[in-house]
Amino acid sequence: MMMLFNPITGCLTPRARSLATGLGTGGILLLSACGLQKDIDVELPAYPAQLVVESYLENNRFPRVSVTESVPYLSAPDAGLPQGVKVVLTLPSGRRDTLLYAPAINPNTNKGYTHTGRTRISARPGDTFKLEVYDTQGRRVTGSATMPATVPLDSVEYKYNDLTGSQRMAYVLASFRDPAATVDFYRFQVHKRSVSTDPEVEYTVEDRLSNGQPLSLGTSYQFSPKDTVFVTLYHLDRPYFQFLQSVQDARNSNGNPFAQPSAIKSTVEGGIGIFTILSYQRQRLILK
């Protein structure tokens, strides 16, 4: 009896290789059965955990900051919070306010935070706030943000298509005038029923091709009669705009073997994250 496979190497014997060569396609398949799999252990470099900071200040709201830690890409999720972290917010007046460590969920946004202020802040366009986050391990994150000017909404309207019944849907359109003296960035959101849920529509734009002109941002035909929608127009500074774009790029490349890796463009130094002051206009619309 002729042996086809070497019991030691697991590959075809010379005699079997010669036989397989004369079998055409079948022989090729037989030859390909040798060495189909090879396990490789890749040693990933060890990166020290960094502080991750997220804070969106709003006028007449309590200042709140979320501080977590970065973890390796392939590690299991860790819900633990870094300990011994201090957060100091410097107001436009120069007064330093040490925030209280009190982890909770903001009921207005459904977002978690770790530190909160005791008094509401006053933020006006042009005001600059500074943030300092440090811990007992010597890690320190700093950031500075200036509130952008308010861009008023001129109109918010909706229009139905020509269909009937369950196919009768409406689009929503918001119009405003872009300031001519500056380079401007915007974030457009439309929520249904509540702003504490994920938006139905969300995207960012810049005025590179429409500086100083009337602008309209809208949706597709996707809202039904009696829907209550909240239309929000954020006026962003450049760092916040670039942060949002980098987050979207990272989401798009995550898990895609053909996409280039995308790093988050943080607005803070010494760590990862975002520190900004929100400037927005919002209107509620009930579709009739």
Automatic annotation (TrEMBL):
Which named protein is this? DUF4249 domain-containing protein
Source organism (scientific name): Hymenobacter taeanensis
